[in-house]
Amino acid sequence: MIDGCNELGILVRIVLPLSLPSIATLSLFYAVDRWNGFQDALILQIKISIRAIKAVPNHHCEPTASYPAR
């Protein structure tokens, strides 16, 4: 016990506030990585009829999306 705090108090008042910046940074890196993976699937597709699984939802959400002429 530190200054009368129990284990939960230590977790909530000391450990959690100190770890929030690192959790936020890791969440941001994870989100950017997932977004880049989705964009790569859209950019690198060769034919419209052969799409990566990641690019299929985008095609169904935006049926008027323009694709490069091949």
From TrEMBL:
Keywords: Cell membrane, Membrane, Transmembrane, Transmembrane helix, Transport
Domain of life: Bacteria
Gene3D superfamilies assigned: MetI-like (1.10.3720.10)
Topology with respect to the bilayer: Multi-pass membrane protein
UniProt-annotated location(s): Cell membrane
InterPro entries in the cross-refs: MetI-like_sf
The protein's name in its UniProt record: ABC transmembrane type-1 domain-containing protein
Lineage summary: Bacteria, Bacillati, Bacillota, Bacilli, Bacillales
